[in-house]
């Protein structure tokens, strides 16, 4: 084993990654997030974290585990969680959910508000990723509820990955991300971002409806 790269000669991988290392990382991720990483996820964990080991100039996964255990490693847990969590999202992904919100949930909520006199609405986007889902919810509410400004309506968008939370909070997206939006949504809810380029900024008061948090 080279002292420089610590390449695992048996597996041919750049970094030695033993079962003990995987168990420790799995237990840490479960303790912090509740995510269960079963044995078949070992290669995925390796691929997600190899780049981080290079950035830290570490020679093997046991060194990375030692860092996480150390007092100096407290901040590294955030990088670990960001690397392990999966962020697959787009605007109006699985459109039937938003149609159900528009056709079923909003009428029911509006009916309850009419009978109680309490125009209050709370929605939680539990895996909000980089913001596409909560902004899709906000667009649906705005389109389906003409008197939304008279409501106490809020959307909580949370995600384990702090990088994704920051991206959602910015409300900035490339043109490719909004290319397939339903008709009329692009013009109403997105404008060209300052500074040129192909970036678009969320507009139309959508940000005021959403709180982004880890």
Please describe what this structure looks like.
With 214 residues, the chain is an alpha/beta fold. The chain has helices at residues 19-33, 42-56, 61-69, 76-84, 95-116, 132-144, 162-170, 175-178, 185-189, 206-209, and strands spanning 120-125, 152-158, 172-174, 190-192, 199-202, 210-213. It has a three-stranded parallel sheet. It has a three-stranded antiparallel sheet with strand order 3-5-4. α1 packs across α4 (76-84). The radius of gyration is 22 Å and the shape is elongated. It starts with 18 loop residues before the first helix and ends with a strand.
Concise account of the structure shown:
49% of the residues lie in helices and 13% in strands. By secondary structure, it is of the alpha/beta class.
Give the helices and strands, then pairings:
Layout: H1 19-33, H2 42-56, H3 61-69, H4 76-84, H5 95-116, E1 120-125, H6 132-144, E2 152-158, H7 162-170, E3 172-174, H8 175-178, H9 185-189, E4 190-192, E5 199-202, H10 206-209, E6 210-213
Parallel strand pairs: 1-2, 2-6
Antiparallel strand pairs: 3-5, 4-5
